[in-house]
Amino acid sequence: MPISLTGMASGLDTESIISQLMQLEQTKVTAVQKRQTQVTQHKNDLQAIKTKLDAVKTAANDLSSASLWKPVQTTASSDPTKIDVTVLGGAGIGGNSIEVSRLASSAQHGFNYTAGANAGKLTFYYGNDPNAAGNSKIDIDVPANATLQDVATAINAKDGAPVYAAVVKNGTTEQIVFSSRKTGANSDFSVDTSQLGAGSALAEDPAYTRTGATLNAAIKVNGGAEINPESNILENIIPGVRVSLKGITSSPVTVTTTQPAVNTEDIAKKVTALVDAYNAVVTATRSELTEKRVPTATTTSDLQKGQLFGDTGMASMLNSLKETMTKAISGLGLTGLSDLGIGVPKAGTNSEDARAGKLTVDQEKLKAAIANDYTKVKELFSGQGATKGLSAVIADYVGTQTGTNGIITGRMKTDDTTLKGFTDQITKLNERMEVEQKRLKAQFAAMEKALSNSQTQQAWLTSQIATLP
C-alpha cells in the first residue's frame, strides 16, 4: 500500500484540501452540464414535434399527387394460385377464360462425374452452336480433385450461366443435374467437356434428360385451340395484361379487367392519414406543453422534463395548424375538410380530444363524398387555376415552422448555438481547474518545504543551545 508523505511538515492533509477545493470548482462545471442537458432535451423535444409536422406536410402532398387521382384499370383472377394477372395498360374491359394443362419447364441433363487430379473447365451454352449469338456461353473452372458440390457451387455463382446445377443422390451414388435457366423447347443447352482436366469425366445419364416440345406450356384461351408458349410469363395472350401461369387448372380460370377508375379506398386512406398525422402533432405537442419541470432536478431524467412546459410558441403553432386544417377555401367544388366528414369531435364524445384540438373522420361521409364526385375532392386538395388547394395551404404553413427559415428550425439553431457555448464554457472551466490544481499543488509543496527547512533549522539551534555550558 503506497504511503503519502503529503503534509508531513505541516501536519495537514494537503491532498484532501486540494481535492475539496477542486470539488468546489467542479460544481461550476456541473451547473453548466445541467443546463446543457436541459437545452439538449429542449432541442430534442422541438425536433420530435418538427418530425411530426413534416409528416403532416408529406400526408398533405400525397393528396395532391397526380398518381393518386389517375384512373387505372384493375384485373383479377378467379384463382390466383393457378393464374396470376397484372394490368400492363390499355387492356380490354371484361372477362377471359384460361385453361392450363401443362406448365412450361426447363431443359435438363444429368451426369455421372469422376474427379481428376488435374484442373480444367466446363463450357455451357444454349443450343448446339458454341459461336451463335446470344447463346450465353460461359466457362466454369473446375479445380483439381473438385467434388460435385464444388462444381455445382461454381456454376450457380455465375449469374450469366445458361444453367443451374444440383447434386442429387441415387442411393450411395451422387450425380450432377444441369437445368436451363429459361423454359421451353428452345431452352436446351450443350455441355462441352473437351477441356475438362485429365482424369476427370462427365458421363450423361439419359434418365434425367428432358428436351423437346413437351417443355412448352399447353393452354387454351377462351376455349380456343391449344397454344404452346415457351414461358409461363405471357404478355400477348390477353393484350394489356401480364399472365403468370402458376399451376395446372382443373377448370377454366376467369380473368376480369375493369374500366379505368380511381382507387377510392386508397384516397380515403390518404385523407385519413392526413388527419392521423395532424392528431399526432396535437398529441405530441400537448404532452410537452403540460409536462412540468422538476424544480430541484438532479438526475438526467428529471432535468429533461418540462422543457416546453407552457411554451407560448408551440401553443400558438397548434392553434394556427388547427385553423389551417379547418380553413374554408372558396372557388372550389368543396369548401374544406368538413365537407368530407372531418371536424372536431361532437359534444359529449371524445371531449378530451375536442379540448385538445384533435379532428375525427366520419368514414361513411368521407367515402360517400369520394364516390359521389371524386373530382371535387381532388380539387379541394390539388386546387384549380390560381386557387391553391388545401394540400398546398397546409404544406405552406408547415414550411413556416419546419422549413430552412422556419420558426421551429430557428429555435433549434439557437439551441445549437447555446450548446456550443456551453461546450466552450466547460472546456475553459476544465482548463482553469487544471491550472488552479497545479498552482495549489505547487503552493502547498513550497509551504511544506519552507516548514521543513524551518523545523530543521529549529532543531539544529535547539541542539546547539543544549551544548552550551
Automatic annotation (TrEMBL):
Residues 419-450 form a coiled coil. Keywords: Bacterial flagellum, Cell projection, Cilium, Coiled coil, Flagellum, Secreted. GO terms for cellular component: bacterial-type flagellum filament cap; bacterial-type flagellum hook; extracellular region. Its main location: secreted. InterPro entries: Flagellin_hook_IN_motif (IPR010810), FliD (IPR040026), FliD_C (IPR010809), FliD_N (IPR003481). It comes from the Bacteria. GO terms for biological process: bacterial-type flagellum-dependent cell motility; cell adhesion. Signal peptide: none annotated. Residues 216-454 form the Flagellar hook-associated protein 2 C-terminal domain. It is found in: Secreted; Bacterial flagellum. Residues 10-106 form the Flagellar hook-associated protein 2 N-terminal domain. The keyword Coiled coil applies. It holds the Pfam family FliD_C. Required for morphogenesis and for the elongation of the flagellar filament by facilitating polymerization of the flagellin monomers at the tip of growing filament. Forms a capping structure, which prevents flagellin subunits (transported through the central channel of the flagellum) from leaking out without polymerization at the distal end. Homopentamer. Belongs to the FliD family. This is Flagellar hook-associated protein 2.
